[in-house]
Write a structure and sequence with these properties.
This protein is an all-alpha fold. It is built from 20 helices and no strands.
Length: 472
Amino acid sequence: MLVIILHFTLVPLEGDVLLRFIIGAIFIIIGLGIFLLGADLGVVPIGHQMGRSIAKSNKVWIVGVLGFILGFLITVAEPDLQILAKQVETVSNGALSSWLIVIVVSIGVGIMVAFGLLRILFSKKLNHFFLIAYLFIFVLAFGVSESFLAISVDASGATTGAMTTPFILALGYGVSQLKGGAQSEEDSFGMVGLASAGPIFMVMLLSRFAPNAGQGGVEMVFETATGILTPFLENIPHIMKESLWSLLPLTLLFLLFNRFVFKLKKRKTARILKGLVYTYFGLSLFLIGVNAGFMDAGRVIGQALASMEKTWILPLVGFLLGMVVVLAEPAVYVLTEQVEEVTSGHIKKNMILITLSIGIALAVLLSMLRIMTPSLKLWHMLLPGFALAIFLSFKVPPLFVGIAFDSGGVASGPMTATFVMAFAQGAALAIPTADVMIDGFGVIAMIAMMPIVSIQILGYFYQRKQNRLEGE
């Protein structure tokens, strides 16, 4: 709706671009519905079963090894990461191959998933883990180039997308519910947030071995697709293939575990496999709509708005875009549903959605201001932002800490990795003082950070309200 309004007011789009956007929106709506149904029937139950099986082993090395393998495999299959990795390969003129980025990031996620599962089993406090992880990241950040900093934090956000988030959420939930105890509700969250920290330090470590690979200053040329149906027809084969590769490792792992560990009844097994088929087609439709219909529209709009004399229009539209983009993220709905379920309805999903919407709106606004202002650097916002997030983690209920860090991961999904990043790159192309290689990245990082702060602020006021009610 926002794009249509912009078309009739500020940025008239060419007929082909507008029609592709509308067709893409239809694909996204249908795909999102099918995907969510499939995730509920297939991906989430697999995560629960995996979590319970890992917890039953009661052996540290099994928990650690299986946690790493599951985290690695599900991340290799994440479509959002594939999109970002290809963009990084283009930015670095091939010095950083897309597969190198995928492997390095997946190792980081695997490490943090293993630590996250061990944390639940040993009942360690979540905020302590985040404090240690981000102190390590802050130390590594010194000496890292601006471009590598942007890539590392963007990789963190892109990692937790449509495939990884439902699975990791369910994995943590399965372990915490089997373990039981007073902290089971709190332990259900935080796994996605921990997984998001892994890619940051792994890409920063990579920068030590390839310090010049991610430098800016390379001229980037984006080609706008032509025709209406042709881009969709061209995207269908490779996206269907990518979606198949996305689900294949998880499917094979489920079949293997079901044969030797789960031993589920045929009816339940068939239901899960049916869910995986739904997930496949839903994810494919969603990604076809995003790639064929949304990318060009986002880049054209960003470039046109940044070229206007009234400079305040770009951040204002960025704010509005941030408010609505979260509503199109599949993983957001998976998280909010689980929040409402785990808290027995005490924390409403609409409350989380509104808070996320405001936080992401501010994130995109600040990202546009960074692109427009040469002296404003990405670390000027990320450093105090994450520092505030860690500080708040010691001031709010532990349940909100887990929800907040998980929200940062789920908010930066397919829509962010495509439309919003394209919008930012279009703006960077139009502003003479901006570098697309540096300023075109970083928006995913901002969108991943702001919900962590905003949800914890919500938790602070929620706690005050609860204390007041108890006092009365």
